[in-house]
């Protein structure tokens, strides 16, 4: 059974959404190449149109647009997918995957070209928001607890200082009197 994890980039908002495709929907993607346009109806997202921008195979090697086929190859490259910084004149030998989607690809990156009626965030977005709220509330609680402890320590120090001052005054009075 073929299964892909789709990462859908929304250029308007700058956010990305995850969507998993299995079975017949996933098999429709097999054979497509990077740069091709994809109708959202094929993957269960009616009304949308996407462009395939990239992906990676089951070992994590990135797909490269100018390498035809499904094979993995080691190439010499100066600047491209999977390379961060290279000194001037330096080339690196890098393992990359071809530009055609096949059964051993695990992730496919898509960019939205045309928006549908229903939002992509759907149920997944609501779950993410709930999780964010939960983590925020936990962090806030931790922050509040830390703040309370700091305030208690400050108050303890103030009372200690006041007691020390009282003792010093009594000692002075006893010495004078």
Description:
The chain is of the alpha+beta class and 177 residues long. The chain has a domain at 3-120. 34% of the residues lie in helices and 27% in strands. It has 2 helices and 7 strands. It has helices at residues 23-27, 122-176, and strands at residues 3-9, 16-22, 37-39, 49-57, 72-77, 92-97, 105-114. The strands form 2 sheets. It has a 5-stranded mixed sheet. Strand 1 (3-9) and strand 2 form a beta hairpin. The radius of gyration is 30 Å and the shape is elongated.
String of helices and strands: EEHEEEEEH
Gyration radius, rounded = 30 Å
- Structural class from helices and strands? alpha+beta
The major beta sheet can be summarized as:
5 strands, mixed
Poorly predicted runs of 5 or more residues: 123-128
Roughly what is the average pLDDT, rounded to an integer? 83
How many E strands?
7
How much strand content do the residues show?
25-35%
Distance between the termini: 97 Å
Number of helices: 2
Percent helix, as a range, is 25-40%
Q: Order of strands in the sheet with the most strands?
A: 2-1-7-4-3
Shape: elongated
């Amino acid at each position: 059974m073929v299964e892909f994890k789709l990462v859908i980039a929304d250029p308007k908002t700058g956010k990305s959404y995850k969507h998993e495709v299995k079975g017949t929907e996933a098999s429709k993607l097999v054979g497509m190449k990077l740069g091709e346009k994809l109708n959202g109806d094929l993957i269960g997202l009616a009304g949308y149109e996407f462009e395939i921008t990239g992906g990676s195979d089951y070992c994590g090697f990135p797909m490269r647009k100018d390498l035809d086929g499904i094979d993995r190859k080691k190439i010499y490259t100066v600047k491209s997918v999977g390379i961060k910084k290279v000194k001037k004149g330096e080339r690196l030998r890098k393992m990359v995957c071809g530009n055609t989607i096949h059964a051993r690809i695990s992730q496919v990156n898509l960019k939205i070209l045309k928006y549908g009626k229903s939002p992509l965030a759907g149920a997944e977005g609501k779950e993410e928001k709930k999780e964010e709220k939960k983590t925020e509330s936990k962090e806030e609680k931790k922050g509040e607890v830390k703040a309370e402890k700091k305030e208690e320590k400050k108050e303890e120090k103030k009372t200690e200082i006041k007691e020390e001052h009282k003792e010093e005054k009594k000692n002075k009075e006893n010495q004078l009197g």
